[in-house]
Every structure is written in C-alpha cells, then in structure tokens.
Design goal:
five-stranded mixed sheet; 11 helices; D-Maltodextrin-Binding Protein, domain 2; alpha/beta; 10 strands
Length: 253
C-alpha cells in the first residue's frame, strides 16, 4: 500500500512547516522494542523526540476516546482502530497497516512440541495447570487466542484453566515464572524470552489475520506524527520490524 505522501505536504502547508519537538505515540505493548528502535533512528534524523505509552490496544483506545493526548495510535488489531476511526478521532487517509504477527504457544523447561491437530495433546500438557493468555474479551492477543482455541475445538475444555492477563507480555511473564504451564502469545514476544520454548504455532486459518493498523490522531502535531508514521511504513522501518520478528507489509517508496 502506497502511503499518501500528499497528506504530509498538506499538513506542512497548514502548519506553516512548524515541527513539534515531541510527539506522543500510544502503541500496543507487543510493539515496544521494535517501534522504539524505529523511533531512535527517526528522532536522530528529524530532531523530534517520541514519548510512548504502551498498553493493551483496548486500554489505549479507551484512553484516546476519553480525551487522552496522543498524536499517533498503533493498535494490535483492527477492531479497536475501527472504533477510534468511527469516533472521528483520526485524520482521514492516514490509517495504514505497519506490521503483522503470528500466534504461538510457549512453554518453560524445554518442552516437546505440542501437536495442535490432536486436541488432547495440549490439554494433557497443561496437567491441570493454568494456560496464560490476554483477556479474551478485550486484549487483541486474547481475542486471537480464543478464536484459535474455538477453531480447534478446545475452548470449552480450556476456558476454566485460563489465566487472563492485561497483554501478551504479561502472559509471557506468567510462563517465565512458572505460574502458568503454557502461554498463548505473539511470536515477537516469544523472541524476547530465550528461556521459553515455542512448542506450537497456531495456523493462520485459526484466527483473524494479526495486523497492526496505525493512524494519526486529530492533533496539532499531525505533521511530525505523519512523518513518523511514514518512517514506520518505510523500507527502513520494515527492516527493523522484521528483525524483531514481525511480518512485513507493502512499503512506501
């Protein structure tokens, strides 16, 4: 997808080409390491600092709808961005997907692979202990995870064993400290936990595509926020996301 560069020019014209010294980005917690790396490069080039607020997409979206000051929103799923857009809080034409992800099952202690084609395999591996995952009614990782378990016919059996968390990384942490036997997390989060093993990858057809839409909010800092969004969607930004395990998208030239 070609990012609409004409919007950047329009914003500069409207603002008198003034650039903000700082922009505030609300971003899904699973984006933290990758987006901070892109911001470091962009800030060096632009002279504009980036302040981040990381949390679950649901929490961030609610804060934005309640008036929290933010210049750019990066969501871990489309539904929460849809709500922001429906509330007329983003600048038209700036919404774009900047990355994709994969859902995996992680375990501590060098566990053998789990065969998701055999439902009883995952249930047996839990040994009656908790399965960690994001809140299934609000957190994108939990929403994707519930859909995957329903597709596999495992939801009814596993629902009583869930340890639901505020985001994917919190679920990862429960497995790391052995409070949960297994966890359903993003593949990118599993990469930052070398002490854990990926024991299964959920097939793409088991859940909706995991995409990260981003959009500039209606803010006086729209010029700089749009420029940063362009950096996230650029070839350089995509290369940084790829190093952190994210799936790529079509990039700006």
């Amino acid at each position: 997808m070609k990012f609409p560069m004409f919007l950047i020019a329009a914003f500069f014209a409207l603002s008198g080409a003034l650039r903000a010294e700082t922009i505030t980005v609300f971003a899904a917690s699973s984006m933290k390491d990758a987006i901070e790396d892109v911001a470091a490069v962009w800030s060096d080039d632009s002279g504009t600092d980036v302040v981040f607020s990381f949390a679950s997409s649901s929490a961030l979206a609610r804060q934005i709808m309640q008036g929290a000051p933010a210049d750019l929103f990066v969501s871990a799923n489309e539904d929460w961005m849809d709500q922001i857009e429906a509330s007329n809080l983003i600048i038209e034409g700036t919404r774009v997907d900047i990355a994709g992800n994969t859902l995996v099952l992680v375990s501590s202690g060098g566990a053998d692979p789990v065969d998701l084609a055999i439902p009883t395999d995952l249930i047996a591996r839990l040994e009656g202990r908790p399965l960690a995952m994001g809140l299934v009614e609000a957190v994108p990782a939990g929403i994707y995870g519930k859909a995957a378990l329903e597709y596999l016919g495992l939801w009814d059996a596993l629902a009583p064993l869930l340890a639901q968390t505020a985001n994917s990384r919190a679920a990862l942490r429960l497995v790391q400290i052995t409070e949960a036997r297994l966890g359903i997390v993003y593949a990118t989060d599993a990469l930052i936990a070398p002490d854990l093993d990926v024991v299964a990858v959920f097939p793409a057809q088991t859940h909706a595509p995991i995409r990260y839409p981003a959009a500039v909010l209606r803010t006086p800092n729209a010029v700089a926020a749009t420029d940063f969004l362009h950096a996230l969607h650029s070839a350089q930004g995509q290369a940084i996301f790829a190093r952190h395990g994210f799936a790529g998208v079509a990039v700006d030239g």
